[in-house]
């Protein structure tokens, strides 16, 4: 009951419909990464390898999408998806690592957006280079904090902007595919079929593209992250699958049609965003400008979606007492400001690190993918755990998703696994803070084993960087 003359308080964030959830999945997945696909694939594989890579990635990620769909229905009590599934299946410490890794991957992924947009402008402003110069990092930092203050004003307003931008950024990608098909040169496509001499065996070609496919598919779990806001629980799973299928067709098309316009070796040397150079070769300068404008719009939407998602993961983990309590605070507009601030700070740090990388964009892209693999693997393994003993479709899907994510860890290679440990291990400080706030011992006996592995991996990673065994 309310007093006379007053209105009942409206929830600050309206419940999300199926359409909105699907748009959020598409908005999270269709980011600046798609504009970089032609060059990244051409650096690794020819047409045949690309087709196999997309078949493997598409099947594997579809299995993951089905996993998130089924888990949303079977375990409606678990919010924040990726993080909650790991905690429920394998304990608080691995759940914490899942939450932190997923959050960190979102923050590192946001760096790729700023690198790409500065590289795009760098075509007419050489001082920005490939998005990795001091000036580029300074300007990216300004944009970074402008978005912080935008989102700080309210999640509802930011989500509305995201819906508009999602539609706007898909248009240039579809136009690119149509034009590329119209100008496609069959003889060039045939020459690119087996791959250039530098590409290696077919298996090496497919393996080399795996992290790139993971990067562009990040966001397939976006609806599950926002499950606490869904109007109907079943919409979470539907939005996941609908969003995935829509985006998969676009990503595969962008890559394959590019092989019909330029020789593979020339695509591999294009500056980012490589879609611009590919289209310019077919239609002239206006094609480069068109794609470049599309990329800038894409960055705005993708960065917005991923910043919201990163903050949401920290916020929910803190609500579940797996992160320090200060991260559970939010404003009356449902904005988790401390979580948002920490997300912005990590992105700022990684932006600075790109100054020391040989290839800032590819480094940030691959590290983003590598950080996500442990959360994905734990979610898939949890699905296997709860369906074990009941052989059927759900068990087959969960098993395939688990095998796929395990293969991705192998494809990532030792370099990114070690760098991931360097990021994971220090994060344990947050876990210890949360335990102490609850008056509990920092670690259970089994958790000490996980701690030892993560610290050993981090130490080995630091030594490998110092001795030059691996590089950024």
Overview of this protein structure:
With 472 residues, the chain is mainly alpha-helical. Helices cover 73% and strands 0% of the residues. The chain has 19 helices and no strands. The termini are far apart.
Outline the fold blueprint.
Layout: H1 18-29, H2 37-42, H3 47-74, H4 82-90, H5 92-121, H6 134-152, H7 155-183, H8 186-191, H9 202-217, H10 222-225, H11 234-258, H12 264-268, H13 274-283, H14 285-319, H15 337-353, H16 360-387, H17 393-424, H18 428-437, H19 445-467
Summed up:
The protein has helices spanning 18-29, 37-42, 47-74, 82-90, 92-121, 134-152, 155-183, 186-191, 202-217, 222-225, 234-258, 264-268, 274-283, 285-319, 337-353, 360-387, 393-424, 428-437, 445-467.
Keywords:
472 residues; mainly alpha; 19 helices
Low-confidence stretches: 1-13
Q: Compute the gyration radius: what is it?
A: 22 Å
How many E-type strands? 0
Q: Bin the strand percentage.
A: under 5%
Helix content percent band? over 70%
Structural class, from helix and strand content? mainly alpha
Distance between the termini: 60 Å
Run of helices and strands? HHHHHHHHHHHHHHHHHHH
Major β-sheet annotation:
none
Give the overall pLDDT as a whole number.
Answer: 79
Tally the helices.
19
* Coarse morphology: globular
């Amino acid at each position: 009951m309310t007093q006379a003359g007053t209105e009942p308080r409206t929830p600050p964030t309206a419940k999300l419909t199926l359409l909105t959830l699907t748009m959020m999945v598409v908005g999270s997945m269709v980011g600046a990464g798609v504009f970089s696909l032609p060059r990244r694939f051409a650096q690794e594989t020819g047409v045949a390898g690309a087709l196999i890579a997309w078949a493997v990635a598409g099947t594997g990620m579809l299995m993951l999408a089905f996993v998130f769909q089924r888990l949303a229905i079977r375990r409606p009590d678990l919010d924040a998806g990726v993080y909650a599934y790991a905690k429920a299946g394998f304990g608080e410490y691995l759940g914490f690592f899942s939450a932190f890794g997923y959050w960190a991957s979102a923050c590192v992924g946001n760096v790729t957006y700023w690198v790409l947009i500065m590289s795009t402008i760098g075509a007419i402003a050489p001082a920005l280079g490939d998005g990795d110069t001091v000036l580029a990092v300074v300007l990216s930092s300004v944009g970074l904090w402008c978005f912080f203050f935008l989102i700080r004003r309210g999640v509802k307003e930011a989500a509305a902007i995201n819906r508009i931008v999602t539609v706007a950024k898909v248009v240039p990608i579809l136009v690119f595919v149509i034009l590329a098909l119209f100008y496609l040169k069959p003889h060039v496509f045939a020459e690119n079929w087996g791959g250039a001499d530098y590409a290696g065996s077919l298996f090496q070609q497919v393996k080399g593209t795996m992290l790139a496919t993971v990067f562009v598919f990040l966001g397939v779990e976006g609806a599950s992250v926002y499950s606490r806001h869904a109007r109907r629980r079943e919409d979470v799973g539907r939005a996941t699958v609908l969003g995935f299928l829509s985006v998969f067709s676009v990503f595969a098309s962008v890559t394959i049609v590019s092989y019909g316009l330029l020789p593979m070796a020339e695509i591999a040397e294009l500056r980012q965003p490589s879609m611009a150079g590919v289209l310019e070769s077919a239609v002239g300068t206006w094609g480069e400008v068109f794609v470049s404008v599309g990329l800038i719009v894409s960055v705005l939407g993708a960065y917005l979606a991923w910043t919201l998602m990163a903050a949401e993961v920290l916020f929910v983990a803190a609500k579940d007492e797996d992160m320090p309590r200060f991260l559970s605070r939010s404003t009356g507009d449902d904005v988790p400001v401390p979580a948002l601030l920490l997300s912005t700070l990590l992105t700022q740090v990684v932006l600075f690190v790109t100054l020391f990388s040989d290839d800032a964009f590819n480094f940030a892209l691959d590290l983003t993918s590598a950080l996500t693999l442990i959360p994905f693997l734990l979610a898939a393994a949890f699905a296997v755990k709860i369906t074990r003993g009941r052989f059927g479709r759900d068990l087959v899907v969960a098993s395939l998703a688990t095998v796929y994510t395990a293969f991705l860890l192998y494809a990532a290679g030792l370099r990114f696994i070690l760098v991931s440990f360097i990021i994971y291990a220090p994060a344990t400080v947050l876990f210890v803070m949360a335990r102490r706030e609850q008056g509990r011992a920092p670690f259970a006996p089994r958790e000490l084993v996980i701690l030892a592995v993560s610290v050993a991996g981090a130490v080995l990673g630091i030594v490998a960087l110092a001795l030059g065994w691996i590089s950024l």
